[in-house]
């Protein structure tokens, strides 16, 4: 009965932790499907993959063709590079998530197993970190969908129909496109393309929100495991009259827990390193470009466009900040573990057990960090560098174009 109760609680806690990230990634088929799932679920997931890639390509390819084959104004070309870069980077991030489905499933299995074996005190730690992860994915989703959908619906509709000097009527699409054998201005072509481009926006924002939420879920669970490790270290010498067997068991438990954390963090690195890299490249580019769009619309006295672009700017900045923030949380927790390893009352132990602490201290002072492509450490210092770099590129754009 106790095992059934623990399993039920673990399933409820997993639902609580993945309440927002699972449906967001599930919409685009990026949530891993277990081997025990029905054939219908697997087929439905494959269909979602095909539709998602179709929407990505429908947005990227015609817009690129419009930029290089049809558009001649450099400022308008630059204005279209933002959506193209965003779509391209999320295309890469989505592909990485699909390729790492097994690693994601392994990480979820570790989290579930931790929930099953957790004591009530540890469950509170896990739940507090899961609450932060829920808030992260919810906030990212609200900001991304709020700014992005306004950009894809409100802006083109506010422009209305445009009549060129050649007496040609043009109805703006969310992303101007060029089709060699298709006239996008005729009905129902225009209406279908408009809806499909809005749907492509949904897919892009789902990938951004889902990847940030998944990273937050894994990293914050690792932070919970590190907090529990600190408690285990403090409990190692909480009593002076412990038997040698009890001390050995506690040391063994600490080493096993450290090894488990290292393996879990290694799995996280495999999943997130290139996702973080694509988000950093995308965030740096978009903060720069959207800032330039705001300056352009401000000079044109277009208050509505300035407001919408400002919302997008906040969304892009926040998505980069979130990844850097959770990376900073991991760095801080590792530092706490390192301090706890050599601040415990080790002098209460026998010489034999003191020597056993050398390995624990060495492992505790070799922290694992959230990296972007094994090149950039995700931390608040990195976020500051990204903002400085983006503003520097923005100044170059203002002077050159």
Automatic annotation (TrEMBL):
Question: A Gene Ontology CC term for this entry?
Answer: plasma membrane
In which broad location class does this protein mainly occur, judging by the first location in its UniProt entry?
Answer: membrane
GO terms (BP aspect): signal transduction
User: What terms describe the molecular function in GO for this protein?
Assistant: odorant binding; olfactory receptor activity
Instruction: Write the record's keywords in alphabetical order, separated by commas.
Output: Cell membrane, Membrane, Olfaction, Receptor, Sensory transduction, Transducer, Transmembrane, Transmembrane helix
Q: Which residues form a coiled coil?
A: none
InterPro entries on file: 7tm6_olfct_rcpt
Q: Where are the transmembrane segments?
A: 50-69, 136-154, 202-230, 274-295, 307-331
What is the membrane topology noted in the UniProt record heading this document? Answer: Multi-pass membrane protein
Q: Does the keyword Methyltransferase apply?
A: no
User: Does this entry carry the keyword Nucleus?
Assistant: no
Q: Which PANTHER family match?
A: ODORANT RECEPTOR (PTHR21137), ODORANT RECEPTOR 19A-RELATED (PTHR21137:SF35)
The Swiss-Prot or TrEMBL record describes its family as follows: Belongs to the insect chemoreceptor superfamily. Heteromeric odorant receptor channel (TC 1.A.69) family.
Name this protein carries in UniProt = Odorant receptor
Source organism per UniProt: Bombus impatiens (Bumblebee)
The opening ranks of the lineage are: Eukaryota, Metazoa, Ecdysozoa, Arthropoda, Hexapoda
Source gene?
LOC100740400
